[in-house]
Amino acid sequence: MENKKNPTLYDVAQKANVSITTVSNVLNNKNEASQKTIDRVNEAIRQLGYSRNESARTLKVGTSKLVGLIVPDNNPFFTQILTGIHEECQNHDWQVVVATSEESEKRQNEVIEMLSARQVSGIILASVTSKLYVPEKLQKVPIVLIDREVENANLPVVKANNVEGSYKATETLIQNGHRRIGIILASPGISTTLQRKEGYIQALKRYGIEVDEKLMFYGGDYTGTKTQINGGYQAVMKMIQLPEPPTAIFATNHLLMIGAVKALKEANLKIPDEISFIGFDDHPWQEITDPPFSIISQPAVEMGRQAIQALQKFKEKNIVTTTVLQLELITRNSYRSIT
Amino acid sequence: MENKKNPTLYDVAQKANVSITTVSNVLNNKNEASQKTIDRVNEAIRQLGYSRNESARTLKVGTSKLVGLIVPDNNPFFTQILTGIHEECQNHDWQVVVATSEESEKRQNEVIEMLSARQVSGIILASVTSKLYVPEKLQKVPIVLIDREVENANLPVVKANNVEGSYKATETLIQNGHRRIGIILASPGISTTLQRKEGYIQALKRYGIEVDEKLMFYGGDYTGTKTQINGGYQAVMKMIQLPEPPTAIFATNHLLMIGAVKALKEANLKIPDEISFIGFDDHPWQEITDPPFSIISQPAVEMGRQAIQALQKFKEKNIVTTTVLQLELITRNSYRSIT
């Protein structure tokens, strides 16, 4: 690919027979030149094919109109978050650099460093760790945490009310007569897992049901589509072999859910007749399964939008906000009453 | 958020008591200084918290180590492409700016312009139009087309063999005795739609079956999750009311497929007993539906990887490659023989 030389501001000024300052003023919409001059400058820009060099602008103003999004992987939940971020970024003329940490702390730090070196306007981070050690030299870049909290940082957070969502699912199963409820959780080290576990335990205790560790499973230490699907699968395979197997299962994300349902199908356990089931996350396919699945719905697109709004408040007014979005139980046809 | 002043190269040089050139050499791994000097410079960098300013570097070398990805929307197919791009970009230490054109030509051009102004190393584009009018001033940035071709540009392309994939699906249904096969296509203006239609027609002709326009449906002029799901739904609702309804349906992307299956469920038509069905695109949930769906599988992650490789060849050697990836029929249990 041939590299044509870019026409410069100087070339434009020369062609339009004005000063560089005048060209710059026209480009920045400062109405200090006559309409005739403005037209002449614009004509020169058009003829030369001049386009403003954003890197030069960045160097001058110190931020790049780029927002970084760091997610553990490209699973559909984070894609929905990206959609919300895109929607909101259009208002600011920002663009989004998407990077994955691949659920590795080392990689996450590398990515933060790379984005920081680019002088991004800010970073939206779904952290892989429950503690965040950002080297001091990187703390110049404003970070907003999304989905997952960290313990040791005073940063804006946009998250779902996971405790309440998990409580709702568990309580609904209890109210339908279930007392042996299996739960499948994601990686144990992240806040969302801890909170979903907490909501489950709170509901059991509230209804005087003993918390049985044997009914609590983790999908694995890492994310990644296959790992988590397999984690859900293995959890069910172990659960159904217990001396007192559960009558209901709650899978706390959509990948764990896919694996769990796969195992139930293989084991020939019919949902909801032989086992009740509640899943997590919203996906269109959940309506065409047989039965259609009841799920805890996450407002992922809205989380993305809110994260950009939180970033703006943080940057402009140094306000650290915590935004908690409600989770909703959508009841379709995957659990039944056994009372 | 407070904006601390960044330490400069000059600050580092002063602290290490060396020249700016020496600091620059150390930063660029030119081994012209003694180990003692190198250590002193690195110590000064550490103490000051100096981090290299990528915007300044960009200005100097003219590219930004950023790759742009422009997709019509954030649907899971494009997310899989992004995963492949991420994997390959790690080899080049590139990062990815993801932008959506929202299936609008105007927006697509705006995004190309914005990325171009950032001096991205290249753009991977899933074009919303079958013709691409890139203003001359933007042609400095190398573009690689992904998934969708355009007619009038001599650019590298990475695509799937859509004609063959669609032929396979149609032929399989024909070989199972079906002669009335409905097809649901996406937006009529894009190459993938035209090619999938072409494969369908070729298979019908090959087996001497009349091509009936009444069995060909479009999901709509635009993408977007809901629009396409609804498009698939409406297509089936019309199809099953035909005087001679189809005995098999082929839905040419996963969103059209979800809508189509939803309609079949509502109409109480059992797959595969009462109607045969083949879908498109790979998603883990297709294994847990009842029945599990037979689909044409797209190597989306691999397409992403290949696009970055094509970009590199284009940039470095000015080679315009066309990469065609095979599509595979994965047979599960959604069609049956009616002979």
TrEMBL record, chains A, B:
InterPro entries: HTH_LacI, Lambda_DNA-bd_dom_sf, Peripla_BP/Lac1_sug-bd_dom, Peripla_BP_I. PANTHER family: HTH-TYPE TRANSCRIPTIONAL REPRESSOR PURR-RELATED, LACI-RELATED TRANSCRIPTIONAL REPRESSOR. This is Transcriptional regulator, LacI family. One of its GO terms (molecular function) is DNA-binding transcription factor activity. Pfam families: LacI, Peripla_BP_1. Residues 7-61 form the HTH lacI-type domain. The keyword Signal does not apply. Transmembrane segments: none annotated. Keywords: DNA-binding, Repressor, Transcription, Transcription regulation.
